[in-house]
Amino acid sequence: MAEPLISICIPTYNGEKYLEECIDSCLLQTFKNYEIIICDDGSSDKTVEIIERYKSKHPAIKFFKNPKNLGLVGNWNKCIELTSGEWIKFIFQDDSLREDCLEKFSKEIDNSVELIVCKRNFKLDKTPTEDEKDYYANRVKTLENTGYFGSTFFAPQIISRIAAHNIALNFIAEPSLTLFRKSVINKIGLFDPELKQICDLEFMLRVASNFGLKYIPEQLCLFMIHSSSTTEKNVTGKNYYTE
Fold first, then answer.
1. Span 19-50, pLDDT tens digits
2. How do residues 100-110 score in pLDDT, each as one tens digit?
3. How far apart are CA 37 and CA 7, in angstroms?
């Protein structure tokens, strides 16, 4: 059976601080049947310069610049539009993949699955307060602490039940920790650019409440939390949009 083509999507915007580490982690994958789609949304720092340098050396990288700023979710959707792969693997510009990430995900692919999720792995890029450490270590709602973690497959009915009891809490994962079949877009649509918050959760719920999800209880992606990240702003700010 031929290996599926996986499209790694990196939406960028002023990401020079972490971008090289992110791209390097993609290029070091043990699984080799992939393309890297990088779509920049009008960066004003050295992001484009960094991408051009990598693109000149690595044919797997396909680089696109939006003629106008599409915004966070608009850029995610543009990345998807530009892919050629059967499966979509997002990785944000400040995150990184474990070397065997794609290999582990690819082994879980079968005809019955549309969405695969791995265990969360947060890294705080600063000296965290005790409350922040406790939040990310113990209080973040995850698939493992919902009370329904008995197997690695979460049926649509279970996902719906968890969602109903945890309104607006992202218990599934950030996009960097997921792999989904591109054709599922034809069934449930793209990310919703009208949403100000939890646009990733809303999309994942549309997939998982219809088709379920497969869970890998391994930390295959490092998800960065820093002062300018959307996740950190949501945690520390006034989340009236979410509510």
1. 999 999 999 999 999 999 999 999 999 999 99
2. 999 999 999 99
3. 7
Parallel, antiparallel or unpaired: strands 122-124 and 34-40: unpaired
Query: Cβ distance 242 to 197 under 8 Å?
Result: yes
Amino acid sitting at position 158: I
**What φ, ψ does residue 184 adopt, rounded to 5°?**
-65, -20
